Amino acid sequence: MLISMNWIQDFVDLRGLDLDVLIQRFTLSTAEVEEVFHMGENLRDVVAGKIISMENHPNSQKLHLLKVDAGDGIYDVVCGAPNAREGIIVPFVKEGGMVMGQEIGCARLAGFESHGMCCSEHELGISADHSGLMELPEGTPVGHDMTELFAIKDLVFEVDNKSLTNRPDLWGHYGIAREFAALAGRELKPLETAALSAFDSLPPIEIQVEDKELCFRYTGLKVQGIKEKVSPVDMRIRLFYCGSRAINLLADLTNYLMLEMGQPMHAFDCAKVDKIEVKRFPAPFTFTTLDSVERKVDENTLMICSGGKPVAVAGIMGGLESEIEDDTDSLLLESANFDGVSVRRSATRLGLRTDASMRYEKTLDPEMTVPAIGRFMKLLLDIDPGAQVVSRLTDVYVKRYPAVSLTFDKAYVDRYTGIAIEDGRILETLRALGFQAQQEGGSFTVQVPSWRATKDVTIKADIIEEITRIYGYDNFQISTTLSPLYPQKKSAGNKADNFAKDLLVQRWGLHEVHSYIWFDQKKCKGLGIPLEGNVKLINAQTPDHEVLRTNMGPTLLSFVLENKSFGADFGLFEIGRVCEGLSEDGLCRERKKLGLALYSRARSEKELYFELLGILRTLGREIKGADFAFANCAPLHPWQHPRNTAAVSCGSQNLGWLCALHPAVQGQIDKKAAVVCAQLDMDAFAALPAPDAVYQEPSRFPGIDIDLSLQLPEGVTFGGMESAWAQIDPTLLTGVSLIDSFQQGAMKSLTLRFAFSSQEKTLSKEEVQPWVDGIVEKLAQMGVALRG
Fold it and tell me: Which of 140, 434, 596, 732 is buried most, with the most CB atoms less than 10 Å from its CB?
């Protein structure tokens, strides 16, 4: 948001102060200033000049030969402006002067010398209009410097909008002027407004607020007999400097009041709108807004209507059919207050976020509607004294915010600030900011002003912030606070998350990614993954992001697709949230999941699959001392491989899944690469009981490994075979691992490695053989045979 210091000084006298230093203080105390612009500094020797004669250029159809009276002499000028004519007064840059940062010298144009330049508003830097010369009012003194005739020189600074989110009172110059008055210790002048009570005898406007949930206040006034059509130059300059463009007097006044007070207003052509209804419609319809765009309005959008016909989207933009035109001489002036959340949602649905909607969504003060109309009428009558008010001020006040009163003592201030701020300084600061503050003994009672009570100042700590920020955080004496520090015990979930991340990054070199909780419909479509039905967001930024995800797979696969060109072999993981439908209380059933994906152009799908299986098994053993079981299962999602999908469990607890990809999805990512992924329920995993750690001294003697190649009948799994060696002393049989697997049709073959070791001696093959024979015998009882 752009702020004009000339405008600020309409309300607070800052003469004698360094404005750049004051703006820096504003950054430290109130809101971040991003940039400061010194407007008009690139003008020199630009005066009001009168064209006293004009001749057509003999060799050009567009150029004219002018003689311009600049007050100190007559200048010959070659000019191509279409509106150049004898008798008008225009901005004139003398030879040697400067405009747009460039020095103007004597130039020869089409055979004639030009000793200066007549200027448009664009060339002066006060408007975007470069259609012709700027025509100054009749009677403008010739030879006077333009920067003295009009407020062209100004100090404009840009405030970061995000820092004003909780301060609806700062979305206008008057609210910011209040801050400068408090910072500078100067008096804030009251807004000059017209006496609206003078019109109480006139008939009211017919205003019906049918939707009392979304419209808090609606105030209107009718005016006719408006003859002036163009705004004063200084008003147009301020609008341009603050990022708005001049349109016509009535439209400019509403924009001017919004930038001055932060209160959006709308002017309807009285010939088209003579009464008001505020309501929502039961069914969607199309509506053309002022920007000539036809928009679909749904049943949740609040509309301003006249005679049942919609004329504006409440708080956002008016309709094209009721707009103020250049020949409009009467208006119905709206100054209203709407529910901020509703305005924000409607603007998002319509894809139409305006200066007005940005202010309404900050929760504006309803008390501003009447003063804004009074201020509008003061400015209008100053410009066009012949304008006539033809209705009384009609005010429908539906919802009032409760008054906020806070009480605290001096000890509370001292304890929070750590410094002793004088009582008088506290009262002076609060009163300068508009608070009604009283002191009785050591106790302070503060009435929060309406413009701060809608969402900003609600508790005593907020008052401390007001005192300290104006006092100046840079004035605090730096000291160490003495307070006890207690260690924060991590939950089982935190420990499991952190341990898993460390293992995945340090041991396997996987990359952590971060994503949002919804499916990205566009990315899923690109992967050939159908979108699964689930809970939808009602205020999604785009339709592609409205369905909450049920699992981590599509998210990680989209990351794989986006990053495959950066590496031939990599792995990704994320611990994120998914939504598994709604619970009985209507809230989302959120679960924390670990998603993993491996990609490789060098290794086979089988190798990746077993590596991922090993990663999961290691996580279970090292974090919880648990042995995961893996069992083939039907695909849980359509993008998973119809056969190479396994359920992951521990005991009776289902923990997740492991899978290769459906060939169609695999082809969308990379036909020449292998991709596998897995998901682990971290909430269930963290809840697993962790057994006490048992440590065993490693043997000093070499061990011996025996490999058995086994042929398994259908239905027999690795987990089912564990009973064949469960009775062997674990100090002797130190490990069993899968070396290889092979499947052809219904026949499945595995190669298992049995590791034997002794704490007392080096084992020989003959000593180990009886144990191996026992294992083979028990396996044979299960139908498992040695492969020849």
Answer: 596
Q: How many CB atoms lie within 10 A of CB 595?
A: 26
Domains 2-40+155-184 and 404-474 share a fold: yes
Please state, as a whole number, how many other Cβ atoms lie within 10 Å of the Cβ of residue 619.
21
Q: Show contacts of 284-291: CB within 8 Å, 24+ apart.
A: 285/310, 287/313, 287/319, 288/319, 288/320, 288/321, 289/313, 289/316, 289/317, 289/318, 289/319, 289/320, 289/352, 290/317, 290/318, 290/319, 290/320, 290/323, 291/317, 291/352
Give 179-217 pLDDT, tens digit per residue.
999 999 999 999 999 999 999 999 999 999 999 999 999
Sign of CA dihedral 40, 45, 50, 53: negative
* Beta bridge mates, 681: 593
Q: 704-786 — its CATH code?
A: 3.30.70.380
Would you tell me the crossing angle of helices 423-432 and 460-471 to the nearest 10 degrees? Answer: 100
The pTM (predicted TM-score) of the whole model is: 0.69
Distances (CA, A) of 666 to 622, 673, 675: 32, 8, 7
Is the pLDDT confidence value at 72 over 70?
yes
Structure confidence by residue, pLDDT tens digits, 411-443:
888 888 878 889 999 999 999 999 999 999 889
Q: Determine whether domain 196-397 maps to CATH 3.50.40.10.
A: yes
Lookup: tokens for 222? 């009718």
Determine the length of the chain: 788
* pLDDT tens string 445-459: 999 999 999 989 999
